Amino acid sequence: MVRAKYAEIALQDKGTNASSCCGAGGCSTEVYNIMTDDYSKLEGYAPDADLGLGCGLPTEFAGIKSGDTVLDLGSGAGNDCFVARHETGVDGRVIGVDFTPEMIAKARENATKLGFANVEFRQGDIEALPLSANMVDVVVSNCVLNLVPDKRKAFGEVMRVLKPGGHFSISDVVVRGEIPPRLRESAEMYAGCVSGALEEGAYLGIIHDLGFERVTVSKRKPIIVPDDILARYLSAEEIAAYKASSAGTFSITVTAHKADATCCAPNAEGTAKVKLATGEACGCGVDSTCC
User: Fold this and answer.
1) Less CB within 10 Å around the terminal CB: N or C of the chain?
2) CA 272, CA 280: separation in Å to the nearest integer?
3) Of 27-31, 111-115, 129-133, the least confident
4) CB 59 within 8 A of CB 169
5) Is residue 193 within 8 Å of 22, Cβ to Cβ?
6) pLDDT tens, residue by residue, 148-185
7) Which of 49, 43, 98, 47 is nearest to 71 (CA)?
8) Percent of the chain residues past pLDDT 70, beyond the cut
9) pTM, full prediction
């Protein structure tokens, strides 16, 4: 369902996407866009690549340096890749991965128009990235991992492809409290980046469990779902109860680091520890300190 929806989004004009919920469909008469942040002041911004699908500015906290190799998960039409390319420069390399062929085609077209020889786009799944281990310095992603069914596997792949000492900056949607079931079950709200979200503690827990260090929520902002959207799924009484509760949806930008080459961390399955530099077994249990 998500693949079909984002194939449709790739072929829409930017105005249609920007007036929607993360591009998912006709969103609200109350707001222009309930998710996206303003990219227009960032160096490297390419308007044709901005489909209005993000929920943060992950490159703002990514600490990308000249010459870095950067990976963008769910790269869409290339927006974050081109901002990252400005930071990494002509001596760096930027790789975008997306599982929608229409998005890959659009991103490659944009890269060609911009003349960027060091930006490439690969079709593939975030849960099984088409990259070798230990090859990227920085991973970024914008409002995508919440759409991935197995988030532990996705973050395990981030750990695998990062170089020892590398880091990520990921903007994503999380929830706090109990979201009404009909919102969580809606296909449109799932593709619109709201109902696929994990509870914030569980989301951050996965990152900690996989052995990432210096895990920091660099930015948090509430996502206010307007009444005319809520009314599609909830009665007036249910809307009032939802608003009165402590539940809510938030965009967070999380940064974290992979330990250096001498250390061990849990593998993607969480069943054993492996050496970060080589992927070899550490010879100790997952709960042991062996580096």
Assistant:
1) N
2) 10
3) 27-31
4) yes
5) yes
6) 889 999 999 999 999 999 999 999 988 888 877 777 66
7) 98
8) 72
9) 0.78
